[in-house]
Amino acid sequence: MPFLANTPVEKMTGPYARRWWALLVLCLSLLITVMANTSLIVAAPDMTTELGLSSSDLQWVVDGYTVPYAALMLVLGSIGDKYSRRGALVLGLLIFAAGSVMGSMVDETSLVIVARAIMGIGAAVVMPATLSLVVATFPRSERTKAITAWAATSGVAVAVGPLVSGWLLEDHAWGSTFLINVPIAVLAVFGALALVPPSKAEGMGRIDYVGGLLSIVTVGSLIYAAIEGPHFGWGAGPVTAAVVAGAGLVAFVAWELRHPHPMLDVRKFALRPFSGSMLAVMFFFFGMFAVLYYSTQFLQFVLGYDALDTGLRLLPLGGAVFLGSALTGLFTPKLGVKPMIVTGMAIGAAGMFLLTQIDKGSTYGDFLAPLMMLGLALGLAISPATDTIMGSFPESELGVGGGVNDTALELGGALGIAVLGSLLGTAYRDELTDLVGNRLPGEAMETAKDSVGAGLAVAERVAQDPAAGPQQAQAAVDAVHQAFAHGVAQTSLIGGIIMAAGTLIVLAVLPGRRGFAKQSAEPGAGTTASEAATVRERTGSTH
Hints:
By secondary structure, this protein is mostly helical. It has helices spanning 19-51, 55-83, 85-105, 109-137, 140-169, 176-179, 181-195, 209-232, 236-258, 272-302, 307-313, 315-335, 337-354, 364-391, 398-436, 442-448, 452-464, 470-509, 513-518, 529-539.
């Protein structure tokens, strides 16, 4: 097969002719890495039953992917810049596919977690490579459109993952949700070799491996503490991890400030466009991933939808992402980055507040508007935020820029599921205790309080007990449903408050259009190319 993309981007005299086909390959690569985060949500009940997963086991099956994914992106993005962004993409896809094959074949909890970790390592190579290649391949005049498509793909993947997983689970075991990644990854590898041009940083110098190691320790420890602490108690492990994360952050900042060629120039956080956009991505995915986490459980456990029906009911979220992306592409050049990001975040916060109305009698219709508002918000806010973050890095550091953006995304999502998931569990347990009291044996009650799925399993055992009767079993089911609905409402209130506070913080940090222009003497120094061009056009500046 003749490979078409052999001329490095850096040596092309004009725009790469097949850049839109290359974008399709990059978005396909992004799609499967994000889907791996969300498809497992609807497969979790089947995995729990077949593997006998405890609450802790299930948490680490999910987060075995997240920890290496978030911790390694900055370092692996830098390595891709140094040696080959396309090579990094291909290698990451192959690692991801290998982990997927392993995940589909194993039947022990520990091995499933290992497989998920391998997939996370692959994703940590793929995700920053896709974003850096988008920026490197497209001329500045088209870059905003390309990044909008990239951001829309990540949003759509959030909804498509549960749908594909649900479709597979109709006729296949949970291992199929791993195996579906393999042919897509292989297709993306051939597409990358044929259509994505080679790209690497010119004159980058030596990689700051010490800074990279400190970043891995800091982010990895922080995510571990965020996962373990809220869910399983602040024992020695999570507390130690939190201390290590704090010390690692101090050491990382001190090292990067002194290093002549730092992995990440931490002085960028003094640039308001950059820091405001980073906060926007973190706060938004903090709420987005948490809402998806507990909304999916409500649809399955309370409303009784199977995996496929649940996935289908998340599709409007994906449609709303497309609408938001179209609107942001239309209005960002006219209104500026700040209004689009802040409007998107405000709509997302309002969607979370709507979920405070959820109760035992709620239907899918009560979730439809909040989900569509979150999808619209993602489409509006994330593309200009990502464009601003990437515009803050020179061409030689695009992989690092992609790693920074994606770390903010993953860190926000992991914290959202950990913190709001913990609040959900606490609210559920407290409400179930108030509703049931001592009417269940102690052991059964403790089991029921573990999760909504465990509570319904206890209710099913009550129904099979000849001494109990159908009325007592139905009362147990109603109590579990009511307790979980109460937990969703209470958690959404706290999540909405956090999202609203984040919106106000981002509103205060992001500068107006003149502030973007002031901090961007040239595009790539803290603003989007489209924003800078529009500012120069309106102010008459030629610089």
